[in-house]
């Protein structure tokens, strides 16, 4: 899975607006799940160093939901008010029933978005998606150089991605490129934007790496310098001026270099519902890292129970769970204490303030991470790629690398 800002990304916000314009949304309230993200498989032909799928995904790869079970989940979520459907993974195109899911999504009135690496997208399939009513395809791109593209994904996919981009355009889809930004490509922002323009992109999301899953394991290797991020943003602003409305460019500022935490997922259990490959229902992509939480599964009690009644969805809704400094903070309604997963991953306490907040007593952990990324001894360690073999090691409890990053207590 590629990265966006966790929660409703800027491109997603745009989609949301489009869906409303299409008359899909009616009587929406904030108590309904507006977004259903279907992580239909954890299988993936790419091995991205920054993937935010869980490092132990291998234990969730068995027992993928069937087509019928996905269709039921779509129906149930739509009844509850969901209007946006993201079809993601892993690489969703490794399943051969995405066409069926798309057709059902159209029937139900979803605004549907396929989030793909492009591997497996053929003329035949894209034609079927078009006929089936898929609204949107978001393609991940990695760099302008073959070398970095192939390195960071640990595959040879550079040429293929360009072909797929052209195919998406030829079929009349708006072209949405997602580029995860890290140390290896941040120096190429201008060229990446030029490539996007040449490919006819309508939207480009420059998603600075956020540190969850595999990107947390590789944090020191991937994190750019603050000066590089500032320069990348400056170039982006300049480019935006130049191209105007022809290509919408979003620059997602990384948490570690902001001083306020984000309202992660637009609030826990507020608008997002994620169904994973094996049917677990989560309020956010990373939620399974949190301790002592039992997440519901669609095979057992269904989505309505998951959203309304399950202890997991209610645990961090609102502000009742907060303690200091969040509980008395005047910003608490704006950021809801930040990200629960990040708080736990960095401090060992899921109820702590998100350490990216400058008021957090753990903020030094962020400063330390930034310092570590400048330390060649740490930053030059080999990258651990997202592979089944490495995931099996995590499942077996080999957390050495994570411990080194103080990412777990
Ligand atoms: Fe932010 Fe889980 S990733 S709450």
From TrEMBL:
Binds 1 [4Fe-4S] cluster. The cluster is coordinated with 3 cysteines and an exchangeable S-adenosyl-L-methionine. Residues 30-245 form the Radical SAM core domain. It comes from the Bacteria. Keywords: 4Fe-4S, Iron, Iron-sulfur, Metal-binding, Oxidoreductase, PQQ biosynthesis, S-adenosyl-L-methionine. Pathway: Cofactor biosynthesis; pyrroloquinoline quinone biosynthesis. Its cofactor is [4Fe-4S] cluster. It is an enzyme of class 1 (oxidoreductase). Its EC number is 1.21.98.4. It catalyses: [PQQ precursor protein] + S-adenosyl-L-methionine = E-Y cross-linked-[PQQ precursor protein] + 5'-deoxyadenosine + L-methionine + H(+). SUPFAM superfamilies: Radical SAM enzymes. Coiled coil: none annotated. The keyword Zinc does not apply. InterPro entries: 4Fe4S-binding_SPASM_dom (IPR023885), Aldolase_TIM (IPR013785), Elp3/MiaA/NifB-like_rSAM (IPR006638), PQQ_synth_PqqE_bac (IPR011843), PqqE-like (IPR017200), Radical_SAM_PqqE_MftC-like (IPR050377), rSAM (IPR007197), rSAM_sf (IPR058240). Catalyzes the cross-linking of a glutamate residue and a tyrosine residue in the PqqA protein as part of the biosynthesis of pyrroloquinoline quinone (PQQ). Belongs to the radical SAM superfamily. PqqE family. NCBIfam families: PQQ_syn_pqqE (TIGR02109), rSAM_more_4Fe4S (TIGR04085). Interacts with PqqD. The interaction is necessary for activity of PqqE. This is PqqA peptide cyclase. It comes from Methylotenera versatilis (strain 301). The gene is pqqE.
């Amino acid at each position: 899975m590629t990265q966006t800002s966790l929660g409703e990304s800027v491109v997603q916000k745009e989609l949301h607006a489009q869906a409303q314009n299409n008359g899909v949304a009616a009587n929406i309230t904030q108590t309904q799940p507006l977004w259903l993200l279907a992580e239909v498989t954890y299988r993936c032909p790419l091995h991205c160093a920054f993937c935010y799928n869980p490092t132990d995904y291998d234990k969730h790869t068995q027992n993928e939901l069937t087509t019928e079970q996905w269709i039921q989940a779509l129906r149930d979520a739509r009844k509850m008010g969901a209007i946006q459907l993201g079809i993601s993974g892993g690489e969703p195109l490794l399943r051969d029933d995405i066409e069926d899911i798309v057709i059902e999504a159209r029937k139900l009135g979803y605004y549907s978005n396929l989030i793909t690496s492009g591997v497996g997208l053929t003329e035949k399939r894209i034609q079927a998606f078009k006929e089936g009513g898929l609204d949107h395809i978001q393609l991940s791109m990695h760099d302008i150089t073959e070398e970095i593209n192939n390195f960071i994904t640990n595959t040879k996919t550079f040429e293929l991605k360009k072909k797929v981009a052209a195919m998406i355009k030829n079929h009349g889809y708006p072209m949405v490129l997602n580029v995860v930004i890290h140390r290896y490509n941040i120096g190429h922002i201008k060229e990446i934007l030029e490539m996007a323009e040449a490919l006819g992109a309508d939207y480009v999301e420059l998603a600075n790496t956020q540190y969850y899953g595999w990107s947390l394991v590789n944090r020191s290797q991937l994190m750019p310098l603050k000066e590089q991020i500032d320069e990348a943003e400056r170039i982006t602003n300049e480019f935006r001026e130049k191209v105007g409305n022809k290509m919408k460019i979003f620059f997602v500022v990384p948490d570690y270099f902001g001083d306020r935490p984000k309202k992660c997922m637009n609030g826990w259990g507020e608008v997002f519902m994620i169904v994973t490959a094996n049917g677990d229902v989560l309020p956010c992509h990373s939620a399974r890292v949190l301790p002592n939480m039992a997440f519901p599964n669609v095979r057992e009690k269904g989505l309505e129970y998951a959203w309304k009644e399950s202890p997991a969805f209610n645990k961090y809704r609102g502000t009742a769970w907060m303690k200091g400094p969040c509980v008395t903070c005047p910003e608490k309604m704006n950021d809801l204490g930040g990200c629960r997963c990040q708080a736990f991953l960095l401090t060992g306490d899921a109820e702590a303030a998100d350490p990216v907040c400058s008021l957090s007593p753990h903020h030094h952990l962020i400063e330390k991470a930034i310092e570590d990324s400048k330390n060649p001894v740490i930053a030059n360690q080999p990258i651990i790629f997202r592979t089944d073999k490495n995931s099996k090691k995590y499942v077996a409890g080999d957390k050495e690398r994570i411990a080194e990053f103080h990412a777990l207590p």
